[in-house]
Amino acid sequence: MPEPVSAHASIREMYEYVKGEGLESVFDRFQAQEPTRCPYCRRGIRCSLCSNGPCRITKKASRGVCGIEANAMAMREMLIRNILGTATYTFHANEVAETLAATAAGKTPFTITDSAKLTSAAQALGLGSFNDTRQLAQTFASAMQAELNRSRWEPSRFIQAYAPASRVKKWDSLGMLPAGPLQELMRDTSSCLTNVDADYVSLATKALRLSLACIYGAQVPLELGQDILFGTAKPHPFEVDLGVLDPDYVNILASGHEPFVGVALIDAAHTPQAQQKARAAGAKGLRIIGSIETGQELIQRLPQDEVFAGYVGNWLNQEMVLATGAVDVMATDMNCTVPTLGFYAECFGSRLVPVSELVRIEKGDQPIDYRPEKVAEQAQELIRRGVENFARRKANGKGRRPSQKRTAVVGFSAESILAALGGSLDPLLDVIKNGTVKGVVALVSCTTLGNGPQDSMTIGVAKELVKRDLLVLGMGCGVAGLQLGGLCSPEARNLAGPGLKAVCGQLGVPPVLSFGTCTDTGRVSLLVTAVANALGVDPSQLPVAVTAPEYMEQKATIDAIFALAFGLYTHVSPVPPVTGAPALVKFLTQDVEGLLGGKLAVEGDPVAAVDGIEAHILSKRKALGI
Q: Are 418 and 388 in the same domain?
């Protein structure tokens, strides 16, 4: 295995410990797969959809048995991945709508935390005015669910309210204005069957249209809904890395991608009764710890205290987190639950509890599938299991707890950035216009071992960006890597170029702003829209770019396709599985720019990747005359 396995000292330490215990981890499994990786799969020219296959495109066989050629084969596989990502975001959006509706009906422990955002969203969507907040929340929830299943021929309230008018005009001219996510998912899934759509341009256009349905039909509504329920993010310090785990406490991890169970756990754990139960079991108390994207949703919105006590990192950390021997319950929702976690939980005296109907795992505990109306009692049951487990875990005695932890500044949002600028975008626009800050780059990424050690490419790209006076907005599992890597700490401004360093010092912010989860792709598009509107230009004309230095799974691919549709330069790494389809590669890296203004850039070296990003941003500055 190449060393180091991770950019983080805590994970390197835990890897050596786990290896010494004779346990296999994600790092070992990656290495074990390397000798058998299929070169046809890597290039996107292998298909096993029907019983005539598997088929491979070779010099001797230029088409599959059905007749499909390389470009359509690769694009169809890419569209299938985008369908999976959009379906997951849509599931999340529907859960938000159901939770908001149940909360409006008084059936959950949650409240309408940001009523001002609810009112502004209702006004933007033209939902009317209501004197009763709960009635308005119910109406917004109904609008969310109506959007999910909206007909293609019915105008979208969310696109009309939140997309740039110039982009809407462009999308309409190309026949790309979408239906709701459920309608697009049905149409696109049907298109991917054998002998249906074999035109790579048609399949690519469907992927682009699907991305618009995903962002404006699922991501933007779900983040608005979560802000309304749990509050809009505001900057605050938070401790991160494995050193936040104290084995003398009952520790329950909220892990996955949705905040509902995590918020209920934090509320329940703050009660004197819950803390007394933990102390009666011999613990110092009860703590809730954030993990992966669920953790990001929580730490962006809620302050750290003695009960909500830290954040451990992204999905590649999970086995190492359980191997600390400090976790009593890991409550996992939605995607990014490593299938081996049940074995690690058994070995180190923890309990792995699925809290979503989507998640089932070998050797996992009895599931507690989230239901809005039952979440208060579900949180109590998770606490009961954690307290009950404490003595068993302590008796187990296995594990190693690294000491590393640092403080990151988290909780940036469009609203908090605006507040830091004094309520107007003008200060940001001024420093961009005068070149103090050259531009803005959204880092929306997973974490993967496909292009090096965990988070190494992400940290390398971010360091290179800020060094060149490019402000970074971090989202997804990638921002967790940046938080643990120190890029979201105030002292990181010393890594920035002179212009960005001065701006960070003036505003008291890091050069990398912790902007949230992968669902915040929708939220950052709203910020870019506001900047474009303030300058009176289309988003494709802005000195703005997107980078996914370590994309991993299906939700990441639909986010990247949206960035292209939005008109942005989009860097990705590792190399997507399309290189066996030359016409498709040309379409994504060249032709799509003529249609939509965005283009795909593939580069595995952080310096070369940022060379491309900077050159693009400088060209946009020149075109704008700034």
A: no
Q: How far is CA 568 from CA 71, 83, 424, 469, 602, in A?
A: 23, 21, 24, 19, 14
Q: What is the mean pLDDT of residues 306-314?
A: 98
Residue 376: how many CB atoms within 10 A of its CB? 15
How much is the mean pLDDT over the chain? 96
Residues 473 and 562 in one domain: yes
Q: Domain check: are 161 and 281 in the same one?
A: no
pTM, two decimals, is 0.96
User: Residue 93 is part of a domain; what is its CATH number?
Assistant: 1.20.1270.30
In-domain check, residue 149: yes
Residue range of the domain that includes 281: 242-396
Residues 185-241: tens digit of each pLDDT:
999 999 999 999 999 999 999 999 999 999 999 999 999 999 999 999 999 999 999
Over the range 330-362, which residues count as b (16 or more CB within 10 Å of their CB) and which as e? bbbbbbbbbebbbbbbbbbbbbbbbbbebbebe
Q: Residue 325: inside a domain, yes or no?
A: yes
CA angle 371, 373, 377 (to 5 degrees): 85
- When pLDDT is averaged across residues 60-85 and rounded to a whole number, the result is 97
| pLDDT, tens only, 89-146 | 999 999 999 999 999 999 999 999 999 999 999 999 999 877 899 999 999 999 999 9
Is the pLDDT confidence value at 2 over 60? no
State how far the Cα of 493 lies from the Cα of 168, in Å rounded to an integer. 37
Q: By the 8 A CB rule, do 441 and 544 touch?
A: yes
438 and 488 share one domain = yes
Q: Which contiguous run of DSSP H or E holds residue 331?
A: strand 329-332
User: Is the domain of 488 the same as that of 549?
Assistant: yes
Contact indicator for 237, 411 with CB cutoff of 8 Å: no
Q: Tell me how far apart the alpha carbons of residues 312 and 290 are, in angstroms, rounded to a whole number.
A: 6
β-pairing, 406-410 vs 308-311, is unpaired
The token pair at 538 is 């289309």
Asked whether residue 6 is domain-assigned, the answer is no
Long-range contacts of 86-89 (CB under 8 A, 24+ apart): 86/181, 86/184, 86/185, 86/210, 86/211, 86/213, 86/214, 86/218, 86/558, 87/185, 88/257, 88/334, 88/335, 88/554, 88/555, 89/181, 89/214, 89/218, 89/219, 89/222, 89/519, 89/555, 89/558
Number of domains, the chain: 3
Instruction: Report which of 526, 528, 551, 548 is spatially closest to residue 538, judged by C-alpha positions.
Output: 528
Structure tokens given for 472: 């970074």
506-533 residue pLDDT tens = 999 999 999 999 999 999 999 999 999 9
